[in-house]
């Protein structure tokens, strides 16, 4: 009997304790329509001179009509740091794109209609986010440089790019 009371009591505590949810996420002051994040008042403040160098691996995506979730995460990372007093100049992000995500880098003609990633990638590039596309993927999928959105840089390979970024002090966010 005591065991059942403990189980029921624990279940009641956990069911009543969850007061946060998806509605607590919002976009930030930098990138208004993209990059949702949640405020965490209990988190220790970061020094204003904190610097970030983040490489984000972007392999999944290419879903017609959808904005790539990793591009959204990049926007959210910028928004989150800005909301916590870190200047965008102190945040360096490199998006290393390969796999099915290659479609998210195509200009409208190569995409076959309006690429929903075009706007966000343009905004991210305004904040010096590098968009680096795997040349091995491009050769395999017959993607030419002129098929890409403005500002996308073709590299030798995603692996080479990740190694070079790590040598430059970037941390990998898989």
Write the layout of secondary structure elements.
Layout (H helix, E strand, L loop, with lengths): L1 H16 L7 E2 L10 E2 L13 E7 L10 H15 L7 E7 L10 H4 L6 H9 L3 E5 H7 L10 E4 L2 H10 L3 E3 L1
Parallel strand pairs: 3-4, 3-7, 4-5, 5-6
Antiparallel strand pairs: 1-2
Give me a quick take on this structure.
This protein is an alpha/beta fold and 174 residues long. It has a domain at 58-174: Hypothetical Protein Ychn, Chain: A (3-Layer(aba) Sandwich), CATH 3.40.1260.
What is the subunit organization of this protein?
single chain
Second rung of CATH, namely the architecture of one domain: 3-Layer(aba) Sandwich
> Radius of gyration, Cα only, in angstroms?
20 Å
Main beta sheet: strand number and arrangement?
A: 5 strands, parallel
Tally of contiguous helical segments: 6
Assign the structural class, choosing from mainly alpha, mainly beta, alpha/beta, alpha+beta, or little secondary structure.
alpha/beta
Protein name: DsrE family protein
Keywords: Signal
InterPro entries: DsrEFH-like, Sulphur_relay_DsrE/F-like
């Amino acid at each position: 009997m005591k065991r059942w009371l403990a189980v029921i009591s624990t279940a009641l505590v956990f069911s009543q304790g969850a007061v946060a949810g998806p509605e607590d996420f919002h976009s930030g002051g930098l990138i208004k329509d993209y990059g949702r994040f949640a405020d965490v008042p209990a988190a220790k403040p970061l020094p204003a001179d904190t610097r970030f160098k983040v490489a984000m691996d972007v392999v999944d995506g290419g879903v017609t009509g959808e904005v790539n979730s990793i591009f959204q995460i990049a926007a959210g990372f910028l928004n989150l740091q800005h909301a916590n007093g870190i200047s965008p100049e102190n945040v360096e992000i490199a998006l290393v794109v390969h796999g099915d995500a290659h479609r998210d880098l195509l200009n409208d003609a190569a995409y076959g209609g309006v690429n929903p990633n075009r706007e966000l990638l343009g905004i991210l590039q305004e904040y010096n986010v590098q968009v680096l596309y795997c040349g091995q993927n491009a050769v395999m999928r017959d993607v030419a440089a002129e098929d890409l959105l403005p500002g996308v840089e073709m590299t030798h390979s995603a692996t080479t790019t990740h190694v070079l970024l790590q040598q430059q002090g970037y941390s990998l966010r898989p």
